[in-house]
Predict the structure.
Amino acid sequence: MLCDLCGKRKARRSCPALGTQICAVCCGTKRLVEIACPSSCTYLSSAREHPPVAAVRRQQHDVGVLMKAMQDLSEHQSRLFLAAASFLVSYEPPALHGLVDEDVIEAMGALAGTFETASRGVIYEHRPSSLPAERLAQALKPKLSEARESRAGFERDVAVVLRRIEGAAREIGQTSPSSRRAFLDMLGRMIGKEKPEPRPVLLP
């Protein structure tokens, strides 16, 4: 018996949503996308309990990247790191100026330079070369300043954190050359702003 959806592969699964037999491929690829799977579906439950190996490996890679970037940071620096990373996830660039990893690298490098010179008692603002990076840096700088505590070395701590973010974004870009948002997407997966799941659609 062939699958009622694709008509090509053998139907090996009973679909409670459609009331018919479908193949494993259609079940896996059309689940919650074209098929409104009920919560009682055993295949849906199994997929949620046992995510694909690729997804597990990606999560392990993401955790490794963040752990490396935050390695040996003090408690205060860790809070600054998470604050900056959360800002990057929630940041909404102006229309027609979508943000990519290279903008993050430029913005973090310029801001780090600004705070490094400030830690030496020199006021000099380093500026990125691209407009999206410039706007990102200008938006992030006051947010970081809001986290200032009554303690010495604030500028140095911020500079360390920004250099870590710059380095992590650069490293991911080298390992994922096909994606211009590999670092930003990784932060989105790890820190928040999950994309909403597609709405289920019943097949006729």
